[in-house]
Amino acid sequence: MITSARFAALGGALGMVCVGSSVAASQVLVGAPLFTVQALRYTLAAVLLLVLARIGRRPLPRPRGTEWCWLAAVAAVGLVVFNVALVRGVEHAEPAVIGVAVATVPVALAVAGPLAARRRPAPTVVLAALVVTAGAVLVEGGGRTDAEGILWAAVTMLCEIGFTLLAVPVLDRLGPWAVSLHSVWIATVVLTVLGLAVEGPAAITQLDGGDLLAALHLAVVVTALAFVLWYTAVDRIGAGRAGLFTGIVPVAAAAGGVLLGAPVPGAAVWLGTGVVALGLAIGFARPAPQRTPERISPGAGTTTPSAARTSP
Questions:
Q1: How high does pLDDT run on average in the chain?
Q2: Is 287 exposed, middle or buried (0-12, 13-18, 19+ CB in 10 A)?
Q3: What is the pTM of this model?
Q4: How many CB atoms lie under 10 A from the CB of residue 184?
Q5: How far is residue 272's CA from residue 285's CA, in Å, rounded to a whole number?
Q6: Residue whose C-alpha is closest to residue 299's, from 70, 88, 93
Q7: How far apart are CA 277 and CA 283, in angstroms?
Q8: In this structure, are residues 164 and 79 in contact, taking their beta carbons and an 8 Å threshold?
Q9: Residue 115 pLDDT grade (very low, low, confident, very high; cuts 50, 70, 90)
Q10: How large is the angle between the packed helices 168-194 and 226-237, nearest 10 degrees?
């Protein structure tokens, strides 16, 4: 029998596979106006999330108080700045360098996730995160870069961590669907303003069919689907364990490259894939506990059960 925690974990893994598929789409968009195409992507994703939530009768609580600040931080750090750092980073460094930076995320979440929830990091999860990170680094390999490339790689890593940890305080009350929807539409507003100010209203006309298809893939698969799956996993099994799945991203990217005609990966990639699998096996050797404890609601002095997700 598959428990809800196990189901959420499988969803988290699938979500990172979706993120790994973004590599090919992002390469298509290298020459496109950055803010405009990302604004289009998140606009489509926000509409899709809202429609699917209504059809599925998913609760969409309205944020209140400091919850708006947390959601704005998720949108600014995890979506807007992350995409800027990613694009600017590959201008100064090979993609592998950015990938290695992101590969350190499992260790950071294994330690910072529990600390943010005022719990001690689980030694087994930390060990698993170190193994997953080592495997991801093997998959990505080395790469050439300069000082600015290293800086953007560090920013990318911090944004990836912030995308998860900044959402933790509001996940209990709002739930994965509401957190995904609100962070996406907030990012849409910010990117639209930046697009109009920096690239101009005519930038949308510069997008060709390939750009639009890539934006559609990013909106549906990498944003709407992956966000909900990811935040559900973080909510159910914790940021520490969920963070292990970020090691799947470079593996999925390598596999996707082969499907699109890239050469078959070398021995290091296969070894790294095996090490990532070993790390996940270590981290999930014991079933993840059901996460139903009460947490402190942001901006409030009372605790809120995770099941209490009703609109105010």
A1: 80
A2: exposed
A3: 0.78
A4: 27
A5: 20
A6: 70
A7: 10
A8: no
A9: confident
A10: 160
Secondary structure class of 296 (helix, strand, coil): strand
Query: In Å, how far are 7, 220, 250, 257, 262 from 268, measured between CA atoms?
Result: 31, 32, 13, 16, 16
Instruction: Name the nearest CA neighbour of 245 among 232, 230, 235, 260.
Output: 230
If you average pLDDT over residues 45-53, what whole number do you get?
95
Phi and psi at 53, nearest 5°, equal: -65, -40
> DSSP string spanning 59-102?
--PPP-TTHHHHHHHIIIIIIIIHHHHHHHHHHHB-HHHHHHHH
Tokens 């990172």 correspond to 16
Give the residue ranges of DSSP H helices in the chain: 4-20, 22-28, 34-55, 67-73, 82-92, 95-103, 105-116, 123-140, 147-165, 168-194, 209-217, 226-237, 239-242, 248-259, 267-283
Cα maximum dimension of the chain = 56
- Give the pLDDT confidence of 83-96 residue by residue, as tens digits: 888 777 767 766 65
Q: Please state at what angle helix 123-140 crosses helix 105-116, rounded to 10 degrees.
A: 150
Give the Cα separation of 194 and 45 in Å (integer): 18
d(CA 28, CA 225): 21
SS3 295: strand
Report whether 211 contacts 28 (CB < 8 A): yes
Measured between alpha carbons, how far is 122 from 136 in angstroms, rounded to an integer? 21
pLDDT over 50 (residue 285): yes
